[in-house]
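4.2 Preliminary Data

To establish feasibility before requesting continued support, the project team ran the inverse folding procedure on a target of 115 residues. The structure was first converted into the token representation described in Section 3, and no sequence information of any kind was made available to the design step. The complete token record follows.
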């Protein structure tokens, strides 16, 4: 994923609530998708898609009030979801948010995103 897209992606996910919903959806969808593949159950795969995209699209519509990158760049957006989720889990996202000029949770008076 190119750096310009990554920085734009982070700015589109400026609110820590959006990042939290994305991370939760990404983790649940990944687990369900893995179980779907192991069991060969397409219904679980469908559930994985709903669990992954549902919270993310909700956050874009009602928290960020912007359009998800999924519609214009689906594969790069998916890679961005995983990269952002990894940054949250490893405590490395705040530096990337600062580089993108997107507020961290601590700057908005909430919990830090890298905790």
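Position-by-position output of the design step:
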């Amino acid at each position: 994923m190119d750096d310009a897209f990554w920085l734009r992606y982070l700015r589109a996910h400026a609110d820590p609530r959006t990042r939290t919903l994305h991370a939760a959806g990404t983790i649940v969808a990944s687990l369900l998708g893995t179980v779907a593949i192991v069991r060969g159950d397409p219904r679980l795969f469908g559930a994985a898609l709903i669990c992954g995209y549902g919270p993310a699209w909700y956050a874009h519509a009602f928290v960020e009030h912007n359009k998800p990158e999924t519609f214009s760049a689906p594969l790069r957006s998916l890679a961005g979801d995983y990269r952002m989720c990894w940054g949250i889990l490893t405590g490395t996202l705040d530096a990337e948010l600062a580089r993108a000029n997107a507020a961290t949770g601590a700057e908005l008076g909430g919990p830090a995103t890298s905790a």
